[in-house]
């Protein structure tokens, strides 16, 4: 015969008043996904009104990197230039003047050569024959604002591509605005299967998860982009290629890299969640840290483009967050003192 204690439900059980079947769990998941989708749609609608300045913000790291790339190339050309003949005309500017114009006034230049005595209004008429006089060419520097340099401009290759860029930028704004709401809905679904005292952990997870996601996005946009662009453009220079980036390809890169960083930064919370469910204990995290690092580097390679800089810049903080997750698991498992 069953005892009274055997049939009395646990007072901490989440399902004292009602029992959730598997179908009810699916219904809860469907409701959370619908609410998350509605939030995303609202964010995208707002994004359609602010996409234009967002596109200019997204372009700025690439324009800056291209400007630095072509400016350095131009200064290297300036330094390597030699007169065509001994005692020939030298450069019309000193290196100090060129660097000052580039750095202080944000100008770019092309180094070209002309026949000064063939210009309209020249003081003396040149004596010439049927052969082109290459030896008398003199160097000139053609200046223009860097922002108007065609090599720094970001191109589209079709009429409809601009509209696609605008839609992608709107989706990006929608993801950023709706991100906290979507994370909230996911953790709401997780909380439905936890005990009441464990819901306090979820209430802690929500702001931490949102903060980690935003931290990953900001790290990617304000720190990682510069390193990755510098590396990729240097690789172009090593191969002797001049980059001509398309805005649609760059926007895809901008969407992919920050989202990868934001998702990767959820690692400590995933570790705590696995520990709370009893799937992986904290002692396993400690003993298998070498294998975990291998998995982290593989995940970093998947979540970032195929370049070593972005992979290392994601894997390094993830390695630190892994040990942070171990510390968080131990802290939450610490027995309460009376």
What are the defining features of this structure?
two-stranded antiparallel ribbon; 10 helices; mainly alpha; 338 residues
Structure description:
By secondary structure, the chain is mainly α. It has a domain at 20-49 and 155-333. 66% of the residues lie in helices and 5% in strands. The protein contains 10 helices and 2 strands; from the N terminus they run H-H-H-E-E-H-H-H-H-H-H-H. The protein has helices at residues 4-7, 22-80, 95-105, 161-191, 196-239, 247-264, 267-276, 282-287, 289-303, 308-333, and strands at residues 107-114, 138-145. A two-stranded antiparallel sheet has the order 1-2. 22% of the residues are buried.
Q: Concise description?
A:
This protein has 10 helices and 2 strands, in the order αααββααααααα.
Q: How many strands in all? A: 2
Query: What is the typical, i.e. mean, pLDDT?
Result: 79
Strand content: under 5%
In sequence order, what are the helices and strands, one letter per element?
A: HHHEEHHHHHHH
Q: Regions with pLDDT < 50 over 5+ consecutive residues?
A: 1-19
Radius of gyration: 30 Å
Helical content (DSSP H or I, runs of 4+): 55-70%
How far apart are the first and last residues' alpha carbons, in Å? 38 Å
Structural class based on helices, strands and sheet pairing = mainly alpha
Shape: elongated
Q: How many distinct helices?
A: 10
Order of strands across the widest beta sheet? 1-2
The biggest beta sheet, please?
A: 2 strands, antiparallel
């Amino acid at each position: 015969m069953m005892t009274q204690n055997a049939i009395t439900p646990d007072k901490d059980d989440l399902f004292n008043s009602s029992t959730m079947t598997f179908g009810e769990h699916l219904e809860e998941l469907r409701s959370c996904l619908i609410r998350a989708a509605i939030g995303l749609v609202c964010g995208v609608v707002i994004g359609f009104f602010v996409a234009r300045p967002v596109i200019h913000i997204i372009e700025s790291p690439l324009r800056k990197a291209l400007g630095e790339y072509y400016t350095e190339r131009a200064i290297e050309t300036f330094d390597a230039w030699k007169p065509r003949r001994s005692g020939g005309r030298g450069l019309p500017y000193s290196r100090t003047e060129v660097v000052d114009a580039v750095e202080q006034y944000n100008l770019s230049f092309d180094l070209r050569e002309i026949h000064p005595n063939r210009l309209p209004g020249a003081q003396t008429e040149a004596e010439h024959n049927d052969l082109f006089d290459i030896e008398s060419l003199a160097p000139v520097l053609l200046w223009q604002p860097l922002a108007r340099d065609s090599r720094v401009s970001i191109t589209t290759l079709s009429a409809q591509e601009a509209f696609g860029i605008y839609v992608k930028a709107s989706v990006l704004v929608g993801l950023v605005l709706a991100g906290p709401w979507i994370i909230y809905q996911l953790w709401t679904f997780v909380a439905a299967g936890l005990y009441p005292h464990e819901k306090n952990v979820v209430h802690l997870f929500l702001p931490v998860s949102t903060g980690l996601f935003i931290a990953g996005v900001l790290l990617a946009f304000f720190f990682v982009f510069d390193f990755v662009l510098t590396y990729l453009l240097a690789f172009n220079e090593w191969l002797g290629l001049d980059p001509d980036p398309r805005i649609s390809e760059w926007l895809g890169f901008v969407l992919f890299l920050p989202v990868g960083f934001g998702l990767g930064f959820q690692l400590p919370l995933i570790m705590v969640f696995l520990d709370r469910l009893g799937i992986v204990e904290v002692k396993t995290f400690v003993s298998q840290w070498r294998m975990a690092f291998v998995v982290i580097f593989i995940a970093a390679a998947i979540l970032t483009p195929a370049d070593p800089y972005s992979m290392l810049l994601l894997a390094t903080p993830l390695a630190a967050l892994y040990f942070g997750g171990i510390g968080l698991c131990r802290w939450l498992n610490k027995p309460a003192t009376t």
